Amino acid sequence: MVKSGFVNVILNLLNEQCYLAKKNKLFTMNIAYLILGGNKGDKLKNLQVAIEQLEKKAGRVLKKSDIYVTAAWGNTDQPDFFNQVVCLQTELSAHELLNQLLKIEEESGRIRDAQKWMERTLDIDILFFNDSIIKTDNLTIPHPYIQDRKFVLIPMAEVAPEFMHPELNKNIKTLLDECKDELEVKKKQQTF
Fold first, then answer.
1. Range of lowest pLDDT (14-28, 30-44, 161-175)
2. Domains of the chain listed by start with CATH number
3. Residues near 36 by beta carbon (within 8 Å), at least 6 away in sequence
4. Does the pLDDT of residue 25 top 80, yes or no?
5. Does the active-site annotation cover 125?
6. Any catalytic annotation for residue 120?
7. 28, 91 contact by CB (below 8 A)
């Protein structure tokens, strides 16, 4: 617990330093929270490769949750998903980050289908980007379903339980406590 508390203190200081540096226009550094998931192929390896690619193409992974196993959400007639939340420090803008995430998904073998919630090797969604609220044709931040999905809230609460949702004005722990989602979310024993 001490280590986890220490990491949270460091992340909070880092967030504050990034805010002050941006305010003073010293440099641009952003904190993004992402959820990675997949239910096709070698799911564990796909998550591991995704994190390696994030480090190469998008920024520095500061913290990651354990991996959680959940049944598919939406279209339930498919294999279980492995999900993991990461905190990413990046110099990219939200739209630049989205473009990199789409490339990483494509390189993993992800094929985008017109039908939602199908099997996929890798899916990476931006949950939060600093405390920004962004609504464009191809990007909505915060992710619109965070508060409805335990498979997002449980690993997010592991990484940043006190993070405040900028639109709902509630922290992640509170959103998890209030979530009505009944989908079972189990921690996977093996992580990397």
1. 14-28
2. 29-187 (3.30.70.560)
3. 47, 50, 51, 83, 84, 85, 86, 122, 123, 124
4. no
5. yes
6. yes
7. yes
Average pLDDT of 15-20? 56
User: Which among 66, 80, 125, 131 is annotated as catalytic?
Assistant: 125
Q: Which of 66, 110, 131, 149 is catalytic?
A: 110
| Mean pLDDT confidence for 46-60 | 96
Q: How confident is the model at residue 69 (pLDDT cuts 50, 70, 90)?
A: very high
CA distance 21 to 106: 34
Q: 43-57 and 94-107 are packed helices; what angle lies between their axes, rounded to 10 degrees?
A: 140
Strand bridging mode 140-141 / 68-70 = unpaired
Count of CB atoms within 10 A of residue 114's CB?
5
Q: How far apart are CA 14 and CA 145, in angstroms?
A: 27
**Of 30, 109, 18, 97, which Cα lies nearest the Cα of 57?**
97
Report residue 126 as tokens.
């931006």
Exactly one of 60, 66, 80, 120 is catalytic; name it: 120
How many degrees, rounded to 5, is the angle at CA 95 between CA 39 and CA 72?
20
**Tokens read off for 62:** 């500061």
Is 112 among the residues known to form the active site?
no
Q: Which of 6-10, 16-20, 150-154 has the lowest mean pLDDT?
A: 16-20
- Please give the Cα distance from 162 to 12 (Å, whole number): 10
Tell me which of 60, 66, 112, 123 is the catalytic residue.
123
